[in-house]
């Protein structure tokens, strides 16, 4: 790919990800954590080379289910009591699908006032004191082939971020989160703060940089309401972000593709990143329709080295959440996602 073509790709908006909180995943970056801007260009070059190699292989085909995709599954956020046996009922993903669990939620110990920079488990069924129940975390790691486990930071009930954090907050928070990840078997964090502002952008630009330097993954979860602040954060740390999960189920403008494209205009295709689409398990029929109508047509085709960012920008699906699915005994949204990922969109049944 020549440099002018590359610049053209990088200048396009990510297009129209939707309801399944589609995560913006940096493919090929799982084992490569970045600590300097130059690494972002190297990651992009490596990613393009990977795509070219896959395209050259006759066995590599979107329709044959060999393209790599991601399923992100939130768990524990409702506070419903779960056991390792409950977690074991989750459908194991196809071999081409990376499963990422996100535990809800971890937050600042004094989030209702001036943040302290000390993080602990603030809500949900995984809380065991300040830490996470390690029996449940181990159960998550036993599902599928080497799944990742993140903690969700913030959440819908997390209070408004203050207009000014204390001096040194970013470093204190980063060090707390690094220690927390090591203690609780976490591979990374999912930034799901929803009441955000410019101070949040300033603090988390620094925190994300420090986390990634410590080889801890970071995802960000923009929605229609928070996309401006997340867009500012993304512009500063795009090369470091592992995934962008667009919480499409919070966007009342969907299914308008033009409105969705406008919502995603803050997030450019860069460094090999693509969108992960967010769905809500409490709206099964709508979620199934979103998979068929929006996700399947926009799935990234790994047989093509160059991206058309307005047509092929989805590399995964985020589902909110296991608690609901387990309680209802219905994993049909997850099953449909797996069908889409193995090239069987025609087999996905809508209501």
Please provide a brief summary of the model:
The chain is of the alpha/beta class. It is built from eleven helices and twelve strands.
Descriptors:
351 residues, single chain, 8-stranded parallel beta barrel, alpha/beta, 35% helix, two-stranded antiparallel ribbon, globular
Q: What is the SS-derived class?
A: alpha/beta
State the total count of DSSP E strands. 12
Lateral strand order in the biggest sheet: 2-3-7-8-9-10-11-12
- Rg from C-alpha positions? 19 Å
Please give the share of residues in helix. 25-40%
Binned strand content: 15-25%
- Overall 3D shape: globular
Overall pLDDT score: 82
Largest sheet: 8 strands, parallel, barrel
**End-to-end C-alpha gap:** 43 Å
In DSSP terms (H or I, runs of 4 or more residues), the helix count works out at: 11
How do the SSEs run, as a string of H and E?
A: HEHEHEEEEHEHEHEHEHEHEHH
Residue ranges: pLDDT <50 for 5 or more in a row?
1-38, 47-61
